[in-house]
Task: inverse folding
């Protein structure tokens, strides 16, 4: 066996280990969230995935009721708190820090779409005016989505300020 074959095999094993670790995080998170839904007497199904090197767990519901909206809260504040609690539950079981993402009722998916559009518009404005564009304060999740959209538009961006007033600044070319 050559060194290259050993390295390729080791990388594949590491990738498999990472995937199984992320799947384990998803399973732990799903169990935790199912218990939470039972306690709160709310209906919802848990969907697990691995995307961008992190576990992703979603609570979805077929019902037309607004039950899951309670778990999202105003501007996603309850969702953010539940995500942190779920990450802590995963950490308690695995001993490792989790970067798990939680979505409830498609809130984050819709928010990601809106923020991508905002980032693209800010990039267009910075290109046309030649001036930096400062956006309103955002959560770390929101800033990440905007930074990705700005990069996709071919510009740079940076975050400035202190939490909770940290914001994205889109820089002209």
Result:
């Amino acid at each position: 066996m050559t060194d290259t074959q050993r390295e390729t095999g080791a990388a594949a094993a590491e990738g498999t280990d990472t995937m199984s670790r992320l799947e384990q995080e998803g399973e732990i998170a799903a169990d935790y969230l199912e218990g939470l839904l039972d306690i709160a007497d709310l209906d919802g199904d848990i969907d697990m995935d691995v995307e961008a090197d992190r576990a992703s767990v979603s609570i979805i519901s077929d019902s037309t009721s607004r039950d899951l909206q309670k778990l999202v809260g105003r501007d996603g504040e309850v969702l953010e708190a539940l995500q942190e609690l779920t990450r802590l539950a995963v950490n308690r079981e695995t001993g490792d820090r989790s970067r798990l993402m939680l979505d409830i009722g498609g809130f984050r998916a819709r928010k990601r779409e809106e923020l991508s559009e905002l980032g693209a518009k800010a990039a267009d404005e910075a290109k046309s005016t030649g001036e930096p564009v400062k956006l309103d304060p955002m959560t770390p999740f929101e800033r990440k989505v905007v930074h990705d959209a700005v990069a996709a538009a071919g510009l740079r961006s940076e975050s400035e300020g202190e939490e909770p007033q940290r914001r994205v600044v889109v820089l002209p070319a």
